[in-house]
């Protein structure tokens, strides 16, 4: 099951857990109210997994590739890690399925506080278009992930502030309708 919690305010190494003290865990229902969707799948059979195929078909995730984020595999590793950790949004959903390794997705709640979502092998997440978020490896410095898209991939990240985009307005409207 996914682990998520409110973060502390430390600017220390982003690869550390950064749990707020006292601990403030966040459950799946709270993530759903932010538009974040989560599945636990069997990453060892991702190439022939009927459950993954069902999700892809239902949600129209028709494009995919696999990225490995570690010093030995990702060109311009140090620069990319910094870019991933910049607070940003996308105009499309961000869908990631962890095939190996682990890392953190941080998302903003309705009050603009950071929630850290620990992702490890078998975890699949969808972050809705317009949500401010960022990504960091954990202290293992390795993750292999499937990236999925509806239609052709769009890689553009818009760093905060990006409130003028329609996707952000639609996301804020969604938040206003959730209790």
Automatic annotation (TrEMBL):
Residue ranges with Basic and acidic residues bias: 12-22
Binding site for Fe(2+): 88, 90, 94, 133
Pathways per UniProt: Amino-acid biosynthesis; L-methionine biosynthesis via salvage pathway; L-methionine from S-methyl-5-thio-alpha-D-ribose 1-phosphate: step 5/6
Bilayer topology annotation: Peripheral membrane protein
Keyword vocabulary terms for this entry: Amino-acid biosynthesis, Cell membrane, Cytoplasm, Dioxygenase, Iron, Membrane, Metal-binding, Methionine biosynthesis, Nickel, Nucleus, Oxidoreductase
UniProt-listed Enzyme Commission number(s): 1.13.11.53, 1.13.11.54
GO CC, one annotated term: cytoplasm
Keyword RNA-binding: no
Main location: membrane
Binding site for Ni(2+): 88, 90, 94, 133
Listed GO MF terms: acireductone dioxygenase (Ni2+-requiring) activity; acireductone dioxygenase [iron(II)-requiring] activity; iron ion binding; nickel cation binding
Top-level taxon in the UniProt lineage: Eukaryota
Co-factor requirement: Ni(2+); Fe(2+)
Gene Ontology terms: biological process: L-methionine salvage from methylthioadenosine
Enzyme class, spelled out: oxidoreductase
PANTHER family: ACIREDUCTONE DIOXYGENASE
Family of this protein: Belongs to the acireductone dioxygenase (ARD) family.
Identification of the protein by name: Acireductone dioxygenase
Organism field: Mustela putorius furo (European domestic ferret)
